[in-house]
Design a protein that fits this description.
3 helical TM bundles of succinate and fumarate reductases, binds protoporphyrin IX containing FE, elongated, single chain, mainly alpha
């Protein structure tokens, strides 16, 4: 099929001048995808702080609420951050809609091509479409919760939500969707923009390595919230409060909230 035939078919031949917008929108989609992937890596490590214990997760949560800098906890700061990420998410999803098959016929043709060509990257792409579609719903519900009730984040509050409120199957689905989607997305970004110039084979191995790492971390994290939630179900609603903090952190806490200890006590 000649190039001129393709141009006539797509209607570009009738255009007076070539538009830069498709390229700009593609760049914007890649940029928002990259920012969301970086956010998700940070998010996974912060949520996984529960693996280090309740006090570690409590401290991370309070830090985002400004407790150690502003003299009190302001959960609305978390809503503000969530609103910013939501904006990125909506923009990214809107731009992705351009690439979704627009009818069952288009979808059917795409599936037939992927099957006939046995092209692995096209198969990866269709999985990105499936998981992206699932995230429209899953992430929206999660965003709503984080925006509306940011005060309900913490070792016991989160564990109660995961176990007693029965949200663990929801988190399990979202974890699978987000890790598969993000892993394929980053791989495709690297191939598309040829950055950082590594071979496809290496990038593919790196992609599976990262997806595997974050899936294992996510599953261990989810398991820990389920365990804490299970053990805490009789005291559902109670909030965690550490009896004491490490001396270096205690110094940052508002005056009088924790008994001041002699730093030498923490020395080994
Ligand atoms: C700023 C916005 C966000 C905040 C504050 C936030 C916070 C949290 C918190 C505290 C948990 C622990 C469970 C709970 O408390 O309910 C959690 C779990 C989770 N979040 Fe988010 N989240 C945000 C955005 C997102 C986004 C955009 C995604 C992906 C689309 C996402 C995916 C997940 C997943 C998969 C889990 C389960 C992780 C696991 O248990 O291994 N979150 N999030």
């Amino acid at each position: 099929m000649s190039t001129s035939f393709l141009i006539v078919q797509s209607g570009l031949a009738e255009r007076l001048r070539k538009s830069r917008w498709p390229a700009r929108l593609d760049l914007l989609q890649s940029g928002t995808g990259l920012l969301l992937a970086i956010f998700m890596w940070g998010h996974m490590f912060f949520v996984a702080s529960i693996l280090l214990g309740e006090t570690a997760m409590w401290s991370i949560t309070r830090m985002f609420e400004g407790y150690f800098f502003l003299g009190d906890a302001h959960p609305r700061l978390v809503s503000g951050a969530a609103a910013g990420v939501l904006l990125l998410f909506v923009l990214h999803a809107l731009l992705a809609l351009r690439k979704f098959p627009a009818s069952y016929r288009q979808y059917h043709i795409l599936r037939a091509h992927i099957k006939a060509m046995r092209h692995e990257d096209s198969r990866l792409w269709i999985w990105q479409v499936y998981t992206g579609f699932a995230l429209f719903f899953l992430a929206s519900a999660h965003f709503y919760q984080m925006l509306a009730w940011p005060q309900n984040i913490g070792p016991y509050a989160s564990a109660d939500r995961v176990w007693s409120d029965g949200l663990w199957p929801f988190y399990l689905l979202m974890l699978l969707a987000v890790e598969v989607h993000g892993g394929i997305g980053l791989y495709r970004l690297a191939v598309k923009w040829n950055w950082p110039g590594l071979s496809r084979n290496f990038l593919k191995r790196l992609k599976w390595g990262l997806t595997g790492f974050f899936l294992v971390l996510g599953l261990m994290t989810l398991g820990t919230y389920m365990k804490i939630g299970f053990e805490h179900q009789a005291r559902y609603g109670e909030r965690y409060r550490p009896a004491e903090l490490p001396a270096w952190l205690e110094r940052l806490a508002p005056e009088g909230d924790f008994p001041r200890r002699d730093p030498k006590e923490d020395a080994p």
